[in-house]
Amino acid sequence: MLRTLSMLDGVSGNEGAVREYIKAQIQSYCDFLVEDSLGNLIALKKGAGRKKVMLCAHMDEVGFIVSHVMEDGFCRVKPVGGYDNRILAGQRVRVGEQKYPAVFGLKAAHHTTLEERKNELNFGDMYLDVGTAVKRGEYVSFDSEYLEFGDRKAKGKALDDRVGCAALIGLLQADQVYSYDLYVCFSVQEEVGLRGAKVLANRIRPDFAMAVEATTCSDLTGVPYEFVTELGKGPAVSVADGASYSNADYRELMIKTAEKMNLPIQLKKSTTGGNDAGALQLYGRGCATMVFSLPCRYIHSPCSVIDLDDYQAYCQLLKGFMEELEGVL
Question: Which of 141, 145, 159, 282 could connect to 9 by a Cys-Cys bridge, CB 3.0–4.6 Å?
């Protein structure tokens, strides 16, 4: 399932293929399933109580959109979501519904001056070499195969946040009924301003909401205090980030659940970035929120890397936390 989700293309605003796959996996395991006007997918598992719990993973991925079509099979694109220019030169991509193969082009090094080589890579200097005519407005996704390698590692595109989507699918397929109403949501357009989550929060108005995410893993510098998270040390919970503050009581419950289940867990060491929790916490009447993340190296790139043991613990701990939650709501 993780392989399939990673390989599906779903740049922000064009999440249809991801949404249809998720629908097929969960429609037999929920009491109510609806797609809203923005494209969010909402699954409800009815419980016995009056409390509402919402889990949210976003379906979209960073990518590009064709902005200008040139002659001879070249085009210009605009970014959709955040990424690092340095990763783009020579990268393979897929364009439009026809999935035309293309590559990011840049003036060859032996045609540049010494001064040009010293400058930071400029997105405006790059173009897309498609080799055929495409249309303005078509979406562009990274062309990267999912691959398991090394010591229980996996790489692929869009692991932010297809890992969260996969975990929530697995939670629903466990087919467990809780004392609260469980809303499992798959949001759109997170990478361009948490847009889908804003609509979801206003519609559902949960008592507690949790973003089920992927997060930065920067364990390569050799300076441990700069690490955000580390691969192989389990899933992560946040204290705060650029968009939200996690509720301390629920965060402590997640940590205690990990200890009870003898599963690894780590505390995120950075307060940078943001995710759907920023919208869930503030919109509607507001609610207690938390962020539960899987560490991911090279996030927002075609070759994000996760640890499969971390992922297994991530899914197990999510299920265990939902059971423990019954005792506090």
Answer: 141
